[in-house]
C-alpha cells in the first residue's frame, strides 16, 4: 500500500513514554497503529484527527496525524 488519501479517525490511546498509539478509523472501525514519527499535532485519547494511511513495517500505520479543527 502506498500513501493513501486523508481519512478521519478517533484516537483510542497514545502512550507518550512508548512513543506509539492506536486510532479507530471513523468510517471502517479499523484500528490503525500511530508511530511517533506519524504525528504532526500533539494527540491524546479521544482526539478527533485527520490521518493518512500508509504501509509500515508491520502493516498499515497512520502518518500525517493532525487534530481536526473546525469544518473543512
Question: Can you describe this structure?
Answer:
It is a single chain. The protein is mostly beta strands. It has a single domain, classed as Beta Barrel (OB fold (Dihydrolipoamide Acetyltransferase, E2P)), CATH 2.40.50.140. The protein has strands at 7-15, 20-25, 31-35, 48-56, 59-67. It has a five-stranded antiparallel beta sheet, with no helix packed on it. β4 and β5 (59-67) form a beta hairpin. It is globular. The protein starts with 6 loop residues before the first strand and ends in a 5-residue tail after the last strand. The mean pLDDT is 93.
Looking at this protein, list some descriptive labels.
single chain; 72 residues; mainly beta; OB fold (Dihydrolipoamide Acetyltransferase, E2P); five-stranded antiparallel sheet; 5 strands; globular
Query: Major β-sheet, in short?
Result: 5 strands, antiparallel
Write the H/E string, N to C.
EEEEE
Number of helices: 0
CATH superfamily: Nucleic acid-binding proteins
Count of distinct structural domains: 1
Structural class: mainly beta
Task: Choose one word for the global shape.
Answer: globular
Strand content: over 45%
Total number of beta strands: 5
Computed CA radius of gyration, to the nearest angstrom: 11 Å
Q: What is the end-to-end distance?
A: 26 Å
List low-confidence stretches.
none
Oligomer: single chain
CATH topology: OB fold (Dihydrolipoamide Acetyltransferase, E2P)
* CATH class descriptor: Mainly Beta
Q: Order of strands side by side in the largest beta sheet?
A: 3-2-1-4-5
**Mean pLDDT score, rounded?**
93
Q: Architecture, according to CATH?
A: Beta Barrel
Helix content: under 10%
